[in-house]
Amino acid sequence: MASATTAAGTPGQRAHDTARLLVSCADGPGIVAAITTFLADRGANIITSDQYSTDPEGGRFFMRLVFHLPGVGGALGELREAFDREVAAPRGMRFHVNDAAVPKRVAVMVSRYDHCLLDLLWRTRRGELDMEIGLVVSNWPDLAAEVERFGVPYEHVPVTKETKPQAEERELELMGGGAFDLIVLARYMQVLSSDFLDRIGTPIINIHHSFLPAFAGAGPYERAKERGVKLIGATAHYVTEDLDEGPIIEQDVIRVSHRDSAEDLTRMGADIERQVLNRAVKWHCEDRILVHGNSTVVF
Amino acid sequence: MASATTAAGTPGQRAHDTARLLVSCADGPGIVAAITTFLADRGANIITSDQYSTDPEGGRFFMRLVFHLPGVGGALGELREAFDREVAAPRGMRFHVNDAAVPKRVAVMVSRYDHCLLDLLWRTRRGELDMEIGLVVSNWPDLAAEVERFGVPYEHVPVTKETKPQAEERELELMGGGAFDLIVLARYMQVLSSDFLDRIGTPIINIHHSFLPAFAGAGPYERAKERGVKLIGATAHYVTEDLDEGPIIEQDVIRVSHRDSAEDLTRMGADIERQVLNRAVKWHCEDRILVHGNSTVVF
Amino acid sequence: MASATTAAGTPGQRAHDTARLLVSCADGPGIVAAITTFLADRGANIITSDQYSTDPEGGRFFMRLVFHLPGVGGALGELREAFDREVAAPRGMRFHVNDAAVPKRVAVMVSRYDHCLLDLLWRTRRGELDMEIGLVVSNWPDLAAEVERFGVPYEHVPVTKETKPQAEERELELMGGGAFDLIVLARYMQVLSSDFLDRIGTPIINIHHSFLPAFAGAGPYERAKERGVKLIGATAHYVTEDLDEGPIIEQDVIRVSHRDSAEDLTRMGADIERQVLNRAVKWHCEDRILVHGNSTVVF
Amino acid sequence: MASATTAAGTPGQRAHDTARLLVSCADGPGIVAAITTFLADRGANIITSDQYSTDPEGGRFFMRLVFHLPGVGGALGELREAFDREVAAPRGMRFHVNDAAVPKRVAVMVSRYDHCLLDLLWRTRRGELDMEIGLVVSNWPDLAAEVERFGVPYEHVPVTKETKPQAEERELELMGGGAFDLIVLARYMQVLSSDFLDRIGTPIINIHHSFLPAFAGAGPYERAKERGVKLIGATAHYVTEDLDEGPIIEQDVIRVSHRDSAEDLTRMGADIERQVLNRAVKWHCEDRILVHGNSTVVF
What we know:
Structural class of chain A: alpha/beta
Number of helices of chain A: 9
CATH architecture of the largest domain in chain A: 3-Layer(aba) Sandwich
Oligomer: homotetramer
CATH topology of the largest domain in chain A: Rossmann fold
C-alpha cells in the first residue's frame, strides 16, 4: 500500500481486513507499547500511526492507528471488547475502532447555493470521498433535480419562523436515530436549535464563508469588502450550540484586491468554501479527527 | 527598463529622469486623456500606468503613472504647478508627483523584538527597498548595537505610564516636522496617543501579528492557539486613532497545526510579519498606495 | 461598476455599451495619450486600463482598456476603422476591439477524464465565465450523457493511428471556419498535428498536468512521485506546434508529501488542473491576455 | 511539552532527558510493538511518534520516535547496544538514536550572496535552529566581517580551475573527519567533486534557486524569465554526485508576473531560497529526515 492517505479505506479496498483505531486518554508512560502490543499479539500489522500529546506530563494523549488484520471487519465487536478490557478501561481511555472498508453514511443539508453540495456529490461519485450520500435535505426545492441525477433522494423541508419546530421534528425523523454517521451543512442558511443539536446524536460539519474568528455571523463577504482585507477565507467546523464557535477542522484563504467587489469575493470564496469543506469531510470520513476541547487534532 | 516593479526608483536609477504621479478624484469621462495628454505635450513617456474606479458612474477614480522625462527631477515644482492649473484644479483632483530617484526618508520605532527591524535594515542595505533609514527610536535600549552596525542612529526613549506625554514630545522632536516621509512601527509595543498622531504629520505603518480583523488587540498568538485556528497571519496597516482599525495594506498567512504551541506560532508568525511589513513598506516607498476611506488601493 | 474584474462583460451586463481594446506596438512617447484622446473625443469613459512595456526605450508596449460608450456594440466596425486610421496604422499597432457584452463561443475537446470539462460546464452555467460552450468533441463516447445534461452537443470523433488524418478533418469541419473563438483542451489526450494547428485559425488553450517546464510529456504524476518533489502543479498554455512548449498563461501548485502515492497526486492534481484551466479560460474570454513571443502578458 | 515541533531539542531543553530514534527496515508485523515495548520496559515515555510504510506487504518501514527518559543523554551508548541486540539486529533494522539536547555542529559554505547565510546565522542566534554554526568556508573573502560579528570563524579558500584539488584538500581538512554533523551550501557556486563527496563523510544540504527538476543547472532565474513561467521556486536537497539530482527535502514557490524582470525574480527568489533552506536545515537538525532511494521521508 503506497500511501497513508489511501491506506485506510479508499473505495476499492473492500476486503474488510483494515481497521482504524482512535484513542484519547491522559498521557503517561507505556500507552503506545500497551496498544501496539495488543495489536501485535493478534497478528495485526500497523500501517499508519499518528500520535500527539498536549504535554507528556499531565497532558492529554491522542492516537490514530490504521492496522491490517485479515478478517478484522467481521470481528470488530470481539476486538472492541478485548481492547476495552485489556487496554482501555484500565487507563480510562476513550476509543473508537472502525472497519475501514465501510464508508460513512452522510446526509447533506443545503439551501440554494449549489457549489458545495455539487462538489460533494461529484467527488463522492468519483470515489474521492470514503462515504455514501444517503439524503439531501433542503429548505428550498431548487436543487432537487440536480441531486436526483446522482441517485440521491432530496427532501424539501421548508422552514419559517413559525414552523421551525415542526421542520426540525421532520429533520430529526429523516436524519436522526443513528441513520447517518455525519451531517454536512453545505451552505445551509438556517440556524439549528439547541434542541435539535441535543437530539440528533450525530456529528455535524458546517462550512462558514469567512476565515473565523473574523467575520462570524451574517454577510462575511460584504463585511470583508468593507474592511478592505487582502485575503478572504472559509472555515469548516463542527457545529455546537455557539454559532460559528465550534471546533475548527480546516481553513484556507485566497488573495483578493481592491478591484474585487463583494460579488467577486462571493464567487472567489465559493471555490475556497468547497475545497475547505471537501477536506474536512474527507478527514472526518477517514477517522482522522479528534476533538480536544474546542480544538481539533487532525492526523 | 525591463519591469514595472523596478521601473520607478530602484537605487541604481538616480538620473532624476523618472517621476511618479498619484491621482484621485470623482470619476468621469476624459480624465485619463487629460492627464496623459498633459504628459505627452511635455514629451514624457509613460512607463507604467494603473487605474481603478470604484464606479464609473458617481464613483471615485484612482491612478498611478510612472513616466520618463529627462530632467524631471529638477523641474518638479514647475510641473506640479502646471498640472494643478491645467488638469487637477478644474477637476477637483488630489495628486502627488515625486521624483523616483529620491528615496524615502524613514524612521523606525521598535521595542525588543528584532526580526522586523533587522529585516528592514538588511533589505535596505541590499538595495531592495527604495528608502533610507535615518533613525531608529525604541522604548528599550536592547537593540542599539545591532542598529548602529548599520550606521543608523538609535534613540532610546523610555515610556512609562507617567512619562508617556514627555516621551511623545521627545519622539515628535526626533521624528516630526517633516524630517521623515514615513514612520514604521516594527513591533513597537506602545499605543501612540491621538495627540501624537494629530501632530506627527507623517504616515505611519504598523505590523499587527494577526490576520485582522481576527485577534485585534493583545496576545494574538495565544488567542489563535486557544481558538484552534489552522492558519495564522499578519497585517500591515496605516495607523489611525482606532487601534488595529486603520486601512489594511497587506496581509498574509501560514498554515499551523494542533502540534504547534503558542511559542511555535510566535516563531512562525515572525516570518510572516517581516514579509508582510516588508511588502507594505516597499509599496509605500514606491508610491503605490492610495488610501480610500478605510481601505487601500495598491497599484 | 464596482470592480475591474467584472467590469467588462459578466453575463448580466448585456447593454452593449462597454468594449475592450487590446493594443501592442513598439514603445515610444505619446502612445497612451493618442489612444486615450481618441476615446475621450468620442465621449468614452475609461473604466479600466492596464499597460506594460518591456522597455521604454526600444521595447514593446502592451495595453488593455475597457471603456464605456453608449451604443458601442452596434458601432464597432466604424470605431475599428477610425481607430486604425487615426491611431493604429500611423504607429504600426496591432489591436483588437471587442464588445464586452458578447460572450466568447467555445468548443471543448476532452478524452475520458471529466473533472476539467465538468468544471467548465458548471462554471459557465453559474455565469462565472464570459462564454458559451457550443460543442464538446471527444475521442471517447463516455461523457456524452453528462455533457448533454447541460444542453451542449457532444460529438464523438474516435482517433486511431490510422484514422487520425480523417479524424482531424472531421474536427476541422466541426470547429473550424471561425465557428468558435476559442478551443479548450480539457485533458484531451491526443496530440494535434501541425496541419490541424495551421488550419484551425482559432486559439487553443491546453491544460498540462505538471508545473512546466518540469515533467513535460507523458506521465507527469508518476514522474513527480519518482523524483520525490514536494509540490505538484498544473500549467495552462496556448498550444503551438512544440508540445508543452507554448506560451504559459497560468500555473499553480499544491503541497504533497512522501505519504502521497502517484494515485493521490493524480487526485490532488485534478483540483489544481481545473482551477488553473478555469482561470486561463476566464482571462482569455475577458480579453486579458496578450501573447509576447513565447510568453504572455496577463492584465 | 506543548508541541511535537519543539518536543525534541529546542535550545532551552538541555536536561539530556530526551532522545530521538530513527528507524528503517523491511516492513512486517510487530515492528512498532517491538520498538515501543523496548522503550516502555526502560520507563521511557514516547512524546512523538511518526511512521510510514511504502507498502505493508514487502515495503519499507520508516519511524521517528521522540521519547523522554531521565538521564538518557548519559546512557546513549548502552541504550544503542541494547536496542541493536534486542530489536534492530534480529530485524535487519538501520537506526540512529540521538540526544535531543545536543545541537548539531554545522559548517556553512558560501560564495558572495549573503541572504541564505545571514538568515541561518540570525536564526541560529535567535535559537530557532537546533544547531551551532562552527565555521563558514567561502571561495570569496567578501563576507568575513559579517560572519565574524556572529562570533563564527570564516575561512577563505579560493578556488580556481587549476587549484580546485588543493582547495578541496583544504576544505576536507577544515570540515572533514567528523568535525561537523552537517554541511550547508548556502548559495555556494562551486561544484564539489566526487572525490570530495566520497571523502567528506558528512551529509550536505544544498539550496538550488529553482523548482527542481525545472531549471536544473546554471541561470535558473534568467531561464524562468525566458520561459515565461508564472511561479518561481527554490529547492533544498541532499548533495549527491549527480548535480541538482539528490533527494529533495523541501521546495516552495512564489507567484511572479510578466512585469517582473530576471532581476526581480532574483530578488523575490532570494526570499524563497532562505525560507526553504531554513526549513530543510531545521528538519535535518531535529532528526526529521530519512532518505529513501532518491526521495526523502520528512516526519
